[in-house]
């Protein structure tokens, strides 16, 4: 049985992430999305629990969702994961991902497989889309609807939503 993990901060999940998870799900027997971060040390717009909950709402039921606060390779070793799967939008992503992939392989032997981001989502990142939402811009087609609503609600509650 082939097991893959899609790791990331996912603060919050975008439609680009959803596309990568679904494509990974067609390639591996079991796919788990792992939100990395420490629930005891909140950072970012959403708590780790909120990120997990939003992901659960927008991925198919056969994709598992989990979180992890330590080294990713400790998670993959503990759960017998063969492959990490990540999306690559551009050479900038490649430069960022290459040392992490090599470090993870050196530490534990786990391989990283990169899927090229669908061109529809090539310019989409959680941080850029959050910025658009923060100032009242239209994020249709960037976040799943339920996530877009949650982002808008966060900024409304903070009083920064235009
Ligand atoms: O959302 P990102 O920035 O793509 O996620 C990067 C992530 C979460 C994959 C990376 O920061 C990570 O693996 N964090 C867990 C801690 C860890 O294992 N660090 C060493 C990576 S070589």
Automatic annotation (TrEMBL):
Residue span, Cytidyltransferase-like domain: 5-131
EC number(s) recorded for this UniProt protein: 2.7.7.3
Reactions listed under catalytic activity: (R)-4'-phosphopantetheine + ATP + H(+) = 3'-dephospho-CoA + diphosphate
GO function terms (MF aspect): ATP binding; pantetheine-phosphate adenylyltransferase activity
Stretches of the chain forming a coiled coil according to its record: none
Residues engaged in binding substrate: 9, 41, 72, 86
Keyword Ion transport carried by entry: no
Binding site for ATP: 9-10, 17, 87-89, 97, 121-127
SUPFAM superfamilies: Nucleotidylyl transferase
Compartments, as annotated in UniProt: Cytoplasm
Enzyme class, first EC level, given as a word: transferase
Chain's role: Reversibly transfers an adenylyl group from ATP to 4'-phosphopantetheine, yielding dephospho-CoA (dPCoA) and pyrophosphate.
Subunit comment: Homohexamer.
Name of the protein this chain belongs to: Phosphopantetheine adenylyltransferase
Organism (species): Corynebacterium flavescens
Record gene name: coaD
């Amino acid at each position: 049985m082939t097991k893959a993990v899609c790791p990331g901060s996912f603060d919050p999940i975008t439609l680009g992430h959803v596309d990568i998870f679904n494509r990974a799900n067609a390639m591996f027997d079991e796919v788990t999305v792992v939100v990395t971060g420490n629930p005891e040390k909140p950072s970012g717009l959403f708590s780790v629990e909120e990120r997990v909950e939003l992901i659960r709402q927008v991925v198919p039921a056969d994709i598992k969702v989990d979180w992890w606060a330590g080294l990713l390779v400790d998670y993959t070793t503990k759960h017998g994961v063969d492959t990490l799967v990540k999306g690559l939008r551009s050479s900038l992503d490649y430069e960022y991902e290459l040392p992490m992939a090599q470090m993870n392989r050196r530490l534990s032997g786990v391989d990283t497989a990169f899927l090229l981001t669908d061109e529809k989502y090539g310019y989409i990142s959680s941080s850029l889309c959050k910025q658009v939402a923060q100032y009242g811009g239209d994020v249709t087609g960037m976040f799943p609807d339920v996530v877009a609503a949650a982002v808008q609600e966060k900024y409304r509650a903070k009083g920064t939503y235009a």
